[in-house]
Amino acid sequence: MKFSRLKLSTFSQTHLSLLKNKTGLTANILGRFAICLSLKDPSIPNPAEYNKGGFELTPQVLFGDYEELYLALMLNRLKKDKLDPELYLDEMTRAHLNRGVTAIFPRINHLSDFYELVVEEQHV
Predict the structure, then answer these.
(1) Is the CB of residue 81 less than 8 Å from the CB of residue 38?
(2) Alpha helices in 7-110 (DSSP H)
(3) Residue 103: which residues within 8 A CB-CB, separation 6 or more?
(4) Is the pTM of this model over 0.70?
């Protein structure tokens, strides 16, 4: 099982660009953290809340050398949520990515805010 290309929402595309300008961090680094933040939330994100009007990320760009790790995280979450990975892997990964971007955007105005957020989330 592998990820396919993931299409961001227009909201996430805009906000990842703004976050890159504020922090210097690229969309893939911010996206990885966004997914992890969303995975911590026990509720199931609704993929229908996020349009597909943004840019497309390939798994190689989004996850880099950590694709297998993110695949394991997503498969574990899908199992927990009782969703069939064959049907929902890409759709739910996209939903977690978009939900995570929505969660981190108001919390980051500078690179130091990103660092603080990482530290804060480690202790929650």
Answers:
(1) no
(2) 10-23, 27-40, 59-63, 67-80, 85-104
(3) 34, 37, 38, 41
(4) yes
